[in-house]
Specification:
The chain is α/β, with parallel strands linked by helices. It folds into 2 domains: 118 residues, Rossmann fold, CATH 3.40.50; 168 residues, Dihydrodipicolinate Reductase, domain 2 (2-Layer Sandwich), CATH 3.30.360. 35% of the residues lie in helices and 28% in strands. The chain is built from 9 helices and 15 strands. Strands 14-13-12-11-7-10-9-8-15 form a 9-stranded mixed β-sheet. The chain has a 6-stranded parallel β-sheet with strand order 3-2-1-4-5-6, with helices on both faces. A hairpin with a 6-residue loop joins strand 8 and strand 9. Helix 5 packs antiparallel against helix 9 and helix 7 crosses helix 9. The longest helix is centred in the last third of the chain and has 18 residues. Bound molecules: NADP nicotinamide-adenine-dinucleotide phosphate. NADP nicotinamide-adenine-dinucleotide phosphate binds next to helix 1. This is Gfo/Idh/MocA family oxidoreductase. Belongs to the Gfo/Idh/MocA family. Keywords: Oxidoreductase.
Length: 331
């Protein structure tokens, strides 16, 4: 399969792994996209592949078989984080465009290597960080630019989830990068998105699980060159919370459900200033459909993915910085 496409035929996609996120969000988005056709799902377990294939009207294949197929233009990779580097590289070397789950890889060197490999081959490689594709973040940006809370002084973001079953891949050191790469990535990426690329990590605390040594939670202090601070928390031993909050010179702006709003959710922005409280309800938006559209557009037009590659690289470097600077506490 060549790297470029004519516009008429659907973009034929394969899925590497019958993952929960593929079932709940990405296969529905791929199947619903007018210019995209999910052609095959690969699994280590044929029965699981059959269940996914029946639900989404596609075929089944083994992992290697899927990559070798000339009937597939692009692959979606929702494998556990530590397997991304290997399978994204294999997919690119097989000539496929790749939509890869976050984190693109577990370290900045690998991430840079894969982004270069894709560029050299004229292939699209997009990390599936979906929330910046949701309209609500564009609304937040506009309101901040309009000075609704004055000048932004501090930012806080959180992504925390309740404890997961013991058999969840996030407890397995052989395949999971732990909660920093899985959940911590979101508030860090949100700080990059809203505060800009000159963000640097000042300090962090990472809590590790005794026995596995995996990060289960943490808190990060970062700041921009202008001194805007970012207080970022994450973990998988909490109640569920995804939020962004901006403290400005004249008020506060808060967004709940900042990272994982379902497609029918109408986001609510809260603005507080002295003597003024306001809730603004925004329209619903489907960030996963938007990612698929952006991916398809990049493949068809060859116009690239905007600044997505640069953001993936910056994100990977910041996460590596967190690991390097963090105080580690094992419990
Ligand atoms: N973008 C988002 O909003 C979002 C949300 C949630 C998760 N994610 C990301 O998506 C990825 C998958 O997360 P998930 O929660 O969907 O995980 P999951 O349900 O555990 O799915 C991972 C899949 O990888 C396949 N796999 C292949 N080799 C494996 C191995 N050695 N061990 C375990 N699984 C293996 C399995 O499919 P087979 O058994 O069929 O081979 C498994 O179903 C992660 O990178 C995560 O960070 C992204």
């Amino acid at each position: 399969m060549e790297a470029s496409h004519t516009t008429e035929r659907p973009l034929r996609c394969g899925v590497l792994g019958c993952a929960d996120i593929a079932w709940r969000r990405m296969l529905p988005a791929l199947a619903a996209a007018p210019g995209v056709e999910p052609v095959a799902v690969a699994s280590r377990d044929p029965a699981r592949a059959e269940r996914f294939a029946a639900a989404f009207g596609c075929g089944t294949a083994g992992y290697e078989e899927l990559l070798a197929s000339s009937g597939i233009d692009a692959v979606y990779v929702p494998l556990p984080p530590l397997l991304h580097a290997e399978w994204v590289e294999r997919a690119l070397r097989a000539g496929k465009h790749v939509l890869a789950e976050k984190p693109l890889t577990h370290d900045p060197e690998h991430t840079g290597h894969l982004l270069r490999l894709a560029a050299e081959r004229g292939l699209v490689l997009l990390e599936n960080v979906a929330f910046p594709h949701h309209d609500q973040h564009a609304s937040v940006r506009k309101m901040l630019a309009d000075g609704v809370i004055g000048e932004v002084r501090d930012f806080a973001a959180a992504f925390t989830i309740p404890p997961l079953p013991e058999d969840n891949m996030r407890h397995r050191p052989d395949v999971s990068g732990g909660a920093l790469l899985d959940m911590g990535l979101y508030p860090v990426r949100a700080a990059l998105h809203h505060l800009g690329p000159d963000l640097r990590v000042l300090h962090a605390v990472l809590r590790l699980r005794a026995g596995t040594g995996l990060v289960v939670a943490g808190r990060i202090l970062a700041c921009t060159a202008a001194g805007v601070t970012a207080d970022l928390s994450f973990g998988m031993e909490h109640s569920y919370r995804t939020s962004c909050e901006f403290a400005g010179s004249t008020g506060r702006l808060t967004l709940d459900r900042a990272f994982t709003p379902p497609p029918d959710h109408r986001p609510v922005l809260r603005v507080e200033r002295q003597d003024h409280r306001e809730e603004i309800t925004l329209r619903a938006d489907d960030q996963f459909a938007n990612v698929v559209r952006a991916f398809e557009r990049a493949v068809r037009t060859g116009s690239g993915t905007g600044d997505a590659s640069e953001s993936s690289l910056r994100l990977a470097r910041l996460l590596a910085d967190v690991e390097q600077k963090a105080v580690l506490i094992t419990r």
